[in-house]
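Bug #77: duplicate submission created two jobs. Keeping one. Sequence:
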Amino acid sequence: MVRIRGTIGSQPVDLTVELEDADWQRLAAALRPPEIPAPAVTATPSGPKSGGDMLWDQVVKLLSSAGRLSGPDILVALEKLTGNLGVAKQLLVRLRHSPQVRMERVGEAQFYIWQG
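Kept job's structure:
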């Protein structure tokens, strides 16, 4: 038995639902999410790199050759590389979360340091 009390708008509600054990089992079976088989992992041949991957490679090359760049310096360099401030900021976020990059704060400045 399930009892539901509350209000709908200003009207009080007191509802009791009684089900037999078989009804509860059918309800539980109906609410159970279907089992989805795991997709088979297949190796896909790597084709030519997309524009985003080539851009990322250029960003990695920029930071790895410099070794260490401050946030403002790398933002300017990325904006020149991409021609778009929004894309440059997205690349900064990607760099920040990359396992190959370590962030270091010195005073007020953040530095992106290549770990390779």
